[in-house]
Amino acid sequence: MIEVLVTLVILSIGLLGVASLQFIGTFANADALSRSQAVMVAQQMSERLRANAVLSAASNGMVVDNGYFDDSIYNFENLSCGSSASNFVCHCLSHPPSIPDCRNNQCTAAQFAIFDAYEVSCSVASANPNIRIDVNCADNNILDADTCSAGSIHSIILKWPVQNWQNIERVLNPECNEGELSPHDCVVLDVTL
Fold this sequence. Notes:
The chain is of the alpha+beta class. It has one domain. The chain contains 3 helices and 5 strands. The mean pLDDT is about 85.
């Protein structure tokens, strides 16, 4: 009888370990999914920047329209919903009239910036509604009219909130948590045109 009880104790300890592993694996899978989706969206945005780059009038190299660096066109900041539905449902199921439709019409470079920001924001919202995108530039020539001069580094940052597992502090990139109150993870893609 004692051997059976010892066996049950050992078996139950092993099963608790397996259950804990399953629980932690679920969190790891969710983080991996968010990271994979963020990488795909960052790549999509970098391709859009490359596709809409033109030769710079001020120097040798390629530049994109200054509108790409306007924070108000990303994450549906320039749109209002009027309901409590998700951003994807509110803005992406039908094309908003205030966003230029560059799929069927000729667009200017500034209109392409707004359209691309809208399309990428819809990609983000469909992948994970908690991910936010930011496009900025480390301008290497502040004297010209371009927000991001030729040869400058364009940074595409996608960040999302994360949770710690079993009270273990996660080591996160400080760039991900700049200006955030809760822990965030991110994907940063630097592009030079």
